[in-house]
From TrEMBL:
GO cellular component: cytoplasm
GO molecular function terms attached to this record: ATP binding; tRNA binding; tRNA-uridine 2-sulfurtransferase activity
Main location: cytoplasm
Annotated CDD domains: MnmA_TRMU-like
Protein name, as recorded: tRNA-specific 2-thiouridylase MnmA
This protein's record includes keyword RNA-binding: yes
Enzyme Commission (EC) number: 2.8.1.13
Catalysed reactions listed for this entry: S-sulfanyl-L-cysteinyl-[protein] + uridine(34) in tRNA + AH2 + ATP = 2-thiouridine(34) in tRNA + L-cysteinyl-[protein] + A + AMP + diphosphate + H(+)
Binding residues for ATP: 7-14, 33, 112
Stretches the record annotates as Interaction with tRNA: 134-136, 294-295
Organism name: Desulfofervidus auxilii
Entry keyword set: ATP-binding, Cytoplasm, Disulfide bond, Nucleotide-binding, RNA-binding, Transferase, tRNA processing, tRNA-binding
tRNA-specific 2-thiouridylase MnmA-like central domain boundaries: 207-260
Lineage summary: Bacteria, Pseudomonadati, Thermodesulfobacteriota, Candidatus Desulfofervidia, Candidatus Desulfofervidales
């Protein structure tokens, strides 16, 4: 009998994951990752008890702070917009936790992600989940071949409605299982307030206020700290003008916010760094793909070209709005996630 440890979050998806694996004949145990000082509203221990599986907690708060929160702050202070969920999947859930799971004697780690994997021609491939509205391959592109070989995602083959029906049929009260929030360590999703509270000493060393300029360098106003803004932002910039301005670039070194009319924020290409691929180790030639530069955004056709092993040029078939440094660019061919990387720059 194969042994699997399911990571319970306190939500419906991971709960149903545990149930399905038990039904399929796995020897199932549960673990809850303590990543912050807050517990989920519905106790994971109660879910494990309901499922009738052994339960334990792992306190990874210090690892989470070092590997996720501190880089998150650093990115904003460098004028970039990070996506910490991608790092967490790579370094915490399928990094530290997976290593601990294997040491505990389990064959697999299971989570409630809506994604799939297949083994083909000697390599593991990451596939989109069946439910297109819920599928989460965008957040999983940094997972390695070794990590993929020890992961189970039962929900990848199911629709969200099917998961809800399973939960209802076995006696879960769905209204207790709230959707996960956008960033788990920022309860109200107000990253600006989080930065003020967490990194006040670092912010004090920066010039809090700075100039807002157009592309020609003309001063249009004062910003309240460049880390408060993101590429593509229109509202709350603080520029009085008959025509709307959008944030086009953040120059952290010079403490400048560069703004421009909306048409100037459409970019033809981007440079992507630190790529990871599933069908091969490195991109060796030009490849036609569809690319997603935000989780909730539709894919768009593009060509990717290797500059070296660490840099990829992405040429969009149609210019894309507000391509944001620090965010992920993830490449697809149909259902297959070819790979992805972090946006370094755009033009």
């Amino acid at each position: 009998m194969k042994k699997v440890i399911v990571a319970l979050s306190g939500g419906m998806d991971s709960a149903v994951t545990g149930y399905l694996l038990k039904q399929r004949g796995y020897e199932v145990k549960a673990v809850f990752l303590r990543l912050t000082d807050n517990y989920p509203p519905y106790p994971p221990s109660a879910i494990a008890q309901f499922l009738g599986i052994p339960y334990t907690e792992l306190d990874l708060r210090e690892d989470f702070k070092k590997l996720i929160i501190e880089p998150f702050v650093k990115f904003y202070l460098c004028g970039k917009t990070p996506n910490p969920c991608i790092w967490c999947n790579q370094k915490i859930k399928f990094g530290i936790l997976l290593d601990k799971v294997k040491k505990m004697g389990a064959d697999y780690l299971a989570t409630g992600h809506y994604a799939r994997k297949i083994y083909q021609k000697g390599r593991y491939l990451l596939l989109k989940g069946i439910d297109r509205k819920k599928e989460q391959s965008y957040f999983l592109f940094y997972i390695s071949q070794t990590q993929l070989s020890h992961i189970l995602w039962p929900l990848g083959e199911l629709s969200r409605n099917k998961v809800e029906n399973i939960a209802s049929n076995i006696g879960f009260y769905i209204n207790k299982f709230k959707e996960s929030q956008e960033i788990c360590f920022i309860p109200d999703n107000n990253y600006r307030l989080f930065l003020e509270n967490y990194a006040r000493d670092k912010l004090d060393r920066l010039k809090d206020r700075g100039e807002i300029v157009n592309e020609q360098g003309k001063i249009l106003g004062k910003h309240r700290g460049f880390w408060r803004y993101t590429i593509g932002q229109r509202h709350g910039i603080g520029v009085c003008s008959k025509k709307p301005y959008y944030v086009k670039k953040i120059d952290a070194e010079k403490n400048l916010l560069i703004v421009a009319p909306r048409p100037a924020l459409f970019f033809k290409e981007a440079i992507v760094e630190k790529p990871n691929f599933f069908p091969f180790d490195y991109l060796k030639s030009v490849l036609e793909v569809s690319v997603k530069i935000r989780y909730r955004q539709e894919e768009t056709p593009a060509i990717i070209q290797p500059l070296n092993k660490e840099l990829i040029r992405v040429v969009f078939k149609k210019p894309q709005f507000a391509v944001t440094p620090g965010q992920a660019a993830v490449f697809y061919q149909g259902d297959i996630c070819v790979g992805g990387g972090l946006i370094k720059s755009a033009q």
